[in-house]
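Comment thread on ticket #2218

A.B. wrote:
> Attaching the input chain for the structure job we discussed in standup.
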Amino acid sequence: MKRCSTCSRTYTDPNLSFCIDDGTPLTNVETEDESTVVRARDNEDDWNPVAYRPPAAYVPPGTPDKPRRRVWPWIVGIAAAFFLGIVAIGIVAAIMVPRMMRAREHPRIAVRQPENSNTAENNDNSNTAAAPSNTNSNATEHVNTAPPADHDQVLAQLKDLENEWTVANLNADKKKLDLILADDYAGQESEENSGLITKAEYIKKIERDTQIEKWDFSDLKLVLAGDRATLTGIITYFVRDRSISYDFNDKFVWRDGRWQATGSEVKRRGGAESDL
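C.D. wrote:
> Ran it. Output below, let me know if you need it in another format.
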């Protein structure tokens, strides 16, 4: 056995003369313990040491910790979105609420005309005159109020209503006639036929008249009894170069907060037609 005097390594190969680690000449020594003998490898290619691998959980010193996600940006973003939503709702409410309130306060706007709407200027030869102002306006529809008891007031209301009725007849305004006539209306069918006609038949048969230029009421008399009223008088139509007069007898009832016609009779006055 031989030993290196530099690294104290021993060799049993008798053919070695120098240390294979540091090249120091080997010296012969006596064999003492087999456990300390380093035997030469038969083949240098058999040496294949496994590389050292640290445990999976091992963290080398100095390695920075993995950064944590920050929560506060999400909280700030959600709060900002909620605030913007509240602002948007407030703006919409500020715009829409006043409009809704105005619509509730003014569900209908009645068209008003001067009392003398039966003149040729207002009729404009096309019978398009709108209804004069009166307390019988459709704005009071479906309002259960007590019928007016003042004679002069009722006379003025029914005169205005007669004007509205005449305009609706000349224009064949079926919607207006539907408001003026009561559901139980039963009136004279025509000047030639004294039979009765219902509201539905009256509205169905009405036709537009473009010949009458103006009209006038005279000798009006009112009989008032609670919620019932009867208006009699003379209506004169002016047709170009002549006029035609009729005696009329119209009956009304106070219903749903307004006067409604329940019947009508007309009779041409003898010799009433005259040249203008």
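A.B. wrote:
> Thanks. Noting for the ticket: The chain is about 25% helix and 25% strand.
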